[in-house]
């Protein structure tokens, strides 16, 4: 085998392999070139499911199921900004619709970032069930579905009751649109819970913020609230500024757990909530009356997936190791690639054929 063949084989390996030893944090997300022209980003922060409906030209339904009444961890909803006070969640749901006016849309299947590969599903039949959602959006077909990095380490059940599957997952979606006329873009409130009557006016027919104004909102959040990530190397914050510069206009909708003044004291609670919400709320909301495919059940998410200290320096020379772990091998070492501000349930995408 010549040198060129060896290099080809190395490039074909997954971005997240099983490494011979712990590594310091490096840039792991290959940033694509900024979109050409004027672009709108719809940021869905938190455990949203995004369903592309093939027979409707891949128009999108995005939703967050209601939390289990027995779950002590309760979600809150933030609209237009990650920094503004949350809106109350009550029995009925928030329902929004993004009009196609002002956007150049098609009925082509959107590009879905490969970061969703572990949480991207296909369902034969699906229909919205807004009564069981806390937040529900109807959106035109986007050009692409991406995420604000980094990814989050996750461990899924085996497909055949064997070795659990190591993976990475996003904790948000960014739906990307081409703007034709920004003055015509509106996000309309179709329904609001009765408990937010006094807020209805501020929710109606909202224009997007400019990316510069959205960055100011994030700056306020970062300056006044401690980072909710488990560890500095797992923080989303270093990526936001660069990511927002890709777009001219931005909507923000966020669902997650309330921030804590002492986030390190609530890590295990967030981990358990994230796993349970994904398995018993998000997956059933996607598959409805169909069983999820084998290997979909989430076992762990976050830093506890990593068997080594994320701050450990390189202690061994670079080496090539198998990308499939066997019981006879040493405990695997995973590259640290993740973060979230609050709720640690992964986000998910699906294509409905109904």
Labels describing this entry:
disordered N terminus; 8-stranded mixed β-sheet; 16% helix; 354 residues; alpha/beta; 7-stranded mixed β-sheet; single chain
In short:
With 354 residues, the protein is of the alpha/beta class. 16% of the residues lie in helices and 25% in strands.
Can you walk through the features of this model?
The chain is of the alpha/beta class. It is 16% helix and 25% strand. It has 5 helices and 18 strands. The protein has helices at residues 3-11, 200-203, 211-224, 237-244, 267-287, and strands at 39-45, 49-53, 59-65, 76-79, 94-98, 103-104, 111-112, 120-123, 133-139, 144-146, 152-156, 165-169, 172-179, 187-191, 209-210, 249-256, 298-301, 348-352. The strands form 3 sheets. Strands 1, 4, 6, 7, 10, 13, 15 and 16 form an 8-stranded mixed β-sheet that branches. Strand 2 and strand 3 form a beta hairpin. Helix 3 (211-224) runs antiparallel to helix 4. The longest helix is centred in the C-terminal third of the chain and has 21 residues, at 267-287. It is globular and about 55 Å long. The N and C termini lie far apart (48 Å). The model is unreliable at 3-31 and 310-340 (pLDDT under 50).
